[in-house]
Design a protein that fits this description.
This protein is of the alpha+beta class. 22% of the residues lie in helices and 30% in strands.
């Protein structure tokens, strides 16, 4: 673990894996909830966690450096189900990369329980983990200039859903009508770090 100062009242904690980042994020949220940590924002990423708005960053840095972070506890919150049609234009390429029929790609993806590791790229976009490493896929050699909103996609070890149309290089395996970001909803984002997610197959239209 490496703790770096960011400005006057923030710290960036670097760890060696996504699992460690998720565990650290969960532990920091627990400490804030019990009152032993005062932080305005706790923001996870792939292998870092940012703590912003700290009252005593030097003390927090020393505590983090000296402590061992316990594994992330199981999440008790309900699973969010996202309906999906496995009709993406890259489904055949992913099936070839995995060495199986397209229907098996859909089955494996739908039977996996995902967890939102962190959010970013666009409002409402969650980076979901859960697929075993053997199912990692490369990004497209040539990104698309416009990926439709609701596209369910894979890249590396992550699954994601594009909340709005934007450029992107992920492999598109399906589509959903779920609204990932809605200003009129509280909270606006359907997904947040730690959320459990399952994709529920729908019949192709």
């Amino acid at each position: 673990m490496k703790v770096l100062p960011v400005g006057e009242d923030a710290l960036l904690v670097e760890v060696s894996s996504g699992e460690e980042a998720q565990a650290l994020h969960a532990e920091l949220l627990r400490r804030r909830a019990e009152g032993s940590l005062s932080a305005r924002e706790i923001v996870p990423a792939a292998r870092t966690v940012l703590l912003d708005g700290l009252d005593a960053p030097a003390r927090v840095s020393a505590e983090l450096t000296a402590a061992e972070i316990p594994p992330a506890p199981p999440r008790a919150r309900a699973v969010i189900e996202i309906p999906v049609r496995y009709d993406g234009p890259d489904l055949a390429d992913v099936a070839a990369h995995w060495g199986m029929p397209e229907r098996e790609v859909a089955r494996i993806h739908a039977e996996t329980e995902f967890r939102v590791a962190f959010c970013g790229f666009a409002p409402g976009f969650g980076y979901l983990t859960g697929l075993p490493p053997r199912y990692d896929v490369p990004r497209r050699a040539t990104p698309r200039t416009a990926v439709p909103a609701g596209s369910v996609a894979l890249a590396g070890s992550y699954t994601g859903v594009y909340p709005r149309s934007s450029p992107g290089g992920w492999q598109l395996i399906g589509t959903t009508d779920a609204v990932l970001w809605d200003h009129a909803r509280v909270p606006a984002a359907l997904l947040s770090p730690g959320t459990r997610v399952r994709f529920v197959p729908e019949a192709r239209s």
